[in-house]
Automatic annotation (TrEMBL):
<protein>
    <recommendedName>
        <fullName>HTH hxlR-type domain-containing protein</fullName>
    </recommendedName>
</protein>
<keyword id="KW-0804">Transcription</keyword>
<dbReference type="InterPro" id="IPR002577">
    <property type="entry name" value="HTH_HxlR"/>
</dbReference>
<dbReference type="InterPro" id="IPR036388">
    <property type="entry name" value="WH-like_DNA-bd_sf"/>
</dbReference>
<dbReference type="Pfam" id="PF01638">
    <property type="entry name" value="HxlR"/>
</dbReference>
<keyword id="KW-0238">DNA-binding</keyword>
<dbReference type="InterPro" id="IPR036390">
    <property type="entry name" value="WH_DNA-bd_sf"/>
</dbReference>
<keyword id="KW-0805">Transcription regulation</keyword>
<feature type="domain" description="HTH hxlR-type">
    <location>
        <begin position="13"/>
        <end position="111"/>
    </location>
</feature>
Length: 119
């Protein structure tokens, strides 16, 4: 039997919402889309075609609020807005790559466990 959990085990952690939740459907995908440089909203919609414009807008706003994405409005008609990763946003690419590698290696096991649980 293991010992009791320490009631102060999270005492050193900040009491704020995490930058993105495990399982967030779009943040990681937007990070990958912006990995190679700035993109316009319409460009992001190409690989992210299942996302609605409303959800993409919300995701980008949340990422901008958290300092991961910079929004640049170039003005003009029609309006031209680009999104780019900030230096802070770029720091997420390495752990994201590790999570993707883990997924490639273990996705079959994860799906099998889900199937077994739903049976």
């Amino acid at each position: 039997m293991t010992g009791a959990l320490d009631p102060d085990m999270f005492a050193g952690c900040a009491d704020v919402d995490p930058p993105f939740r495990v399982g967030d459907k779009w943040t990681a995908k937007v990070l990958v889309c912006l990995r190679d440089g700035p993109r316009r909203f319409s460009e992001l919609g190409v690989p992210l075609r299942p996302i609605t414009p409303k959800v993409l807008t919300g995701t980008l706003r949340a990422m901008e609020r958290d300092g991961f994405v910079r929004r640049t409005d170039h003005g003009g008609m029609p309006p031209r807005v680009e999104y780019a990763l900030t230096d802070l946003g770029r720091t997420l690419l390495t752990p994201l790559a590790a999570a993707c590698a883990w997924s490639r290696e273990h996705l079959g096991e994860l799906l099998a466990a889900r199937d077994a649980a739903s049976a």
